[in-house]
Amino acid sequence: MTAWIVLPVSLSAFSITGIWIVYAMAVMNHHVCPVENWSYNVTCTEETSKPGFPKTCCTIQDIPLISKCGSFPPESCLFSLIGNVGAFMVVMVCLLRYAQVIEHGHSCWINTGGLVAGFGNAVGLVMVGNFQVDHAKTLHYVGAGVAFPAGMAFVCLQCLLTYRLALTALDYWMAHVRVGLTVGALISLILSGAFFIHESFVLQHAAAICEWVFTVVILVFYGTFTYEFGTVTSETMMAGLQRGCHQSSSMILGGGERLGGLGGGGGKGLKSPGGSSTSTHLNCTPENIAML
Q1: Residue 118 needs a FRET pair 20 to 30 A away by CA distance; which of 50, 217, 263, 291 works?
Q2: How far apart are CA 101 and CA 285, in angstroms?
Q3: pTM of the predicted protein model
Q4: Are 89 and 48 in contact (CB under 8 A)?
Q5: How far is Cα 189 from Cα 120, in angstroms, rounded to an integer?
Q6: Under a CB-based contact definition with an 8 Å cutoff, are residues 88 and 52 in contact?
């Protein structure tokens, strides 16, 4: 077990706790209405609620979408911090997962696609966190349009990888859990988009709730990588880096056919689950030396 096991849990705990703190600050500062409020008005007279208490008169501008909660200071400062730190942690999780899969000898397009989707999710989070919807709407929506689909693609690809790498009953159980989370995220994302395009106050509020559900489910999914990260070692990241070096050198030396030969050999030389940590990553066999 390594210290990397803390990273996925920290990502989930930090981000989920942080966005709910942002929500609480926005409610107390009268920037949004509470999520349990379903009564909205076209217009409101002068606000009579006491500071520190939720608003009593709400309009469509007060619907508690995650983006609306982080639109105004002081909560916008914390919202940006969560977006930036969360994006960095997402990148770290994606890199470690990518390298870990390669270390186990399973180099495939699903793994590469998961890495790209994870990076896209991180870029979207940075844009959403730093360009508030009420001040830079276009950039904010571009970020959301990247973060949400990329996050959905990431969890789908990771579900496939989990089944492909599963060896024990516990591995398959984790795969089933991730499928359940993915289905929940997909349903909430579709409903959020379907409700958001309507002008009805009730449907807009329902869209906000679905958005919260989607975000929390995706963050919980990231937290499940704690299960695999207990086996991460100092060689894990080197496996991912070495794979990139093998691919680069193969393209320079031999073109497409030799790329396939070296790529397959690299996977066989990597450490398998439960195998020795001293397996040969260099792949310096006589056959490969003769080829060169």
Answers
A1: 263
A2: 23
A3: 0.81
A4: no
A5: 17
A6: no
Task: Collect all residues with Cβ–Cβ distance below 8 Å to 70 and sequence separation of at least 6.
Answer: 22, 26, 76, 78, 79, 80, 129, 132
**Two tokens, residue 177:** 């859990």
- What is the spatial distance between Cα 218 and Cα 272, in angstroms, rounded to a whole number? 29
> In angstroms, rounded to a whole number, what is the distance separating the alpha carbons of residues 202 and 123?
31
* Cα 113 from Cα 119, distance rounded (Å): 10
Chunked into runs of 10 residues, the chain (292 residues) has average pLDDT values of 86 97 94 89 70 78 93 94 97 94 83 96 96 92 96 97 94 97 98 91 94 97 94 72 54 42 39 37 40 38
pLDDT at 275: 39
Give the pLDDT confidence score for residue 114 in this predicted structure. Answer: 96
Q: Is the dihedral of CA 198, 199, 203, 204 positive or negative?
A: positive
How far, in Å, CA of 54 to CA of 33, rounded?
7
| Number of Cβ within a 10 Å radius of residue 42 | 7
Cα distance between residue 159 and residue 154, in whole Å:
9
Buried b (16+ CB within 10 A) or exposed e, 185-217: beebbebbeebbeeeebeebbbbbbbbbbbbbb
CA distances from 219 to 42, 89, 140, 270 (A): 35, 11, 20, 30
Q: Given this model, what pLDDT does residue 246 score?
A: 52
